[in-house]
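::Encoded backbone::
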Amino acid sequence: MLCQQVLMEYVDILQTQIETLEKAGTANVSSSAIPYQINNGFTFQNRSDKVSQSVQISDELKNERNTWRLLFELRELSIQKKDDLTILSTAQLPVTNQSTEMDAIAALENRHQIFALQKTILKWLEHVATESVVATKEKRQMHLRTLKQLKRKTSGQSFAMDPDGPLREGDNYLDDDDVEDELDLLKSVWQLLRAGKTHEAMDLCIQLGQPWRVASLSGGEISGACDNESGISRWGNPYRMLWKKMCWQFAESPAPGNLHNTNSLEAREYDSIIYAALSGHAQVILESPHCNSWEDHCWALIKAVIAFQEDDAIFHLLNLKAQTTSLILENSPDHMQLYKAFLAQVRPVVGRFCTNIDQLFEELAASANEVVRAQAQHPHRRIQAKLVTSRIDNIVQDILAALLGPLSGPFTWDLELNDNIPADTVSPQLLRFGAHFVLFMKTTGESFDEEAGARLLKAYIRHLVKHAQYKLVALYAGQLPEEGRGEIYSQCLITIPRHEERQQCLAAIAPFCPPALFAQVTRAAAETLMASKTDARRIGALSLLTFDEKHRVEAVYQANILARQFIAEDKQVRLKALFAQLPEDSLSIIHQQSSKEDKMTADTIREHLAWKALIGATEAYESWRASLPTKRTAACFSDEETIVKEVLFRASVATHAITDVLEFEHGWLMEVPTVRSKCLPFLVFHAHRVQLETVAFLEGLEFYPSEAKEALQAPLAQNAMNLADIVADEHYLVYRAFSQDQTRHLLHLLQQSAMYLL
């Protein structure tokens, strides 16, 4: 019952969206009304394009709603009558000579498998037609204008005002407005009959002053009688078959040649299909220009088939009764002969559909009506035809999966986001339906080709990814097997450009992944992004690894690897942005997670600290450079003193920061000599530049005495000379990072420093 509730709630959601679209009249309606409705992403040049797109989406949603409602009705039938529907032919009906006609019809509905299925289809088709009913509600007397006009005439000519008068004498004397009112009434009666609202059609006829038409419409009521305290109570029409015969003949009779008014001719056409529907004359309805849809033709055939089986069941009952008595009115030879002749007349038209519903849908697909034939090829109508006979595998594999085109090779979970594939031409609404259909059938235990189902889910998920519906991607991919889930989540994460959206996607994915799979997904996505040619994407990849604190070691490790790559590419400027991606508490979290660090974790942390030291040294050096005044701005000693203090402070910070790298514990990145050769020589040169350029700055002071300047310059020059000891230290092995040219250049710089000390 839960599945039934889900179906009805989803049908209601679709109906709400349809009404919203039709009310708004544009395609700009928010998709929030349907949780899984995705806009196509199209842009429109003018309002007509928007309206056209709105109509297209509305039609697709109606088709989808109708399919889900049919599934609901079929499941309802299966739930309620599964154990009772055991009879396959009229001769097996549990009726006796004591049964009534209503008993025979009830036995058909409750015991006959195919009849119950056909009644369910009819109920569904009539429910679909309900939304098209626009019955006139104005209360008026029909032909009142014509009557007034005729009363004013003095020619002495007589005119017939009975219902059949215009058919005998023509419509020349009828008022045009009265003819139009007649047409409106018949249109409304037809729409109500088409929607299964026969009693409402009768009420409308009474309301509009045609009670006689009610009598002509109600002749098909099943007859019966029972004894009560006041005597015998009877109901229905004992001459029902005679009434049906007359309706049949009236439906197929051509319009009289004396009808000239266009509205009169159209009203006669509606009269024909009304009585054709009442008598089961499907051929008249199929040929009518007013029944020009697949649903109308299907309804006409199903209704005729049901009526034929009801008549056959009643005829079977009458034959049973005739074996015991001939006193019953319906058992008269003439009536029985009429019954037999009518059944013989109808059987060639619809008899073949009584046991083969598939044939009915096949003939609709081959209809002589071009519109019906085209509509029968629509995926939803093909699905509906197969759904009736529970051909779930055919629906999934031959209809829905076929829309995606043939496979070019073995099935994979690659979303092919950068390619144009046949699935791009399928409407988003149909893709969504396919995914929902597969998931629903999987939930209810139906069997179908798993690969075809996976293709449908993948196609819809691909659409969601391309339209940045990342939370929905997490939801739908969460229903896939673990292998597909992991690959799709990784591909989705790769497409997300913004950090905030990526974090939201990770939060949505996490509930659908066990820890091992989540780690695999984030690692695979991060590695793919790090292989990108865009630095921002490579740096942003780290945010995938920092989402879960359990992966913080991996995040730091990958940051170290990427830092090495940036150095190799001479992109040292990217290091600050790279390590800014790592939360400040990363090292403390790593220490908390591992009571005893393994060698890999220890090496990862040590390298991370080495990179942080390098970044700190670079920032300190840049701060020193920024503190050097570009021109003399001091107007007095106090101003100059302030500037000197700032420059000396920045020089001291830069010197210590660079020294921390050069004298890093056990040597800075000793295991990566290529990185050392890229970084350490320039740090030494930066350190020397800090000292000598600061000395030069002090030399140019205006308000400082010479002795004071020399006192400030001497330590700086000595610091420059001390670089030789640091470079030559065998513990840190900085000198090994220098090339011969760099060594010669360093010696030249040291000579300059020595000159300041002389």
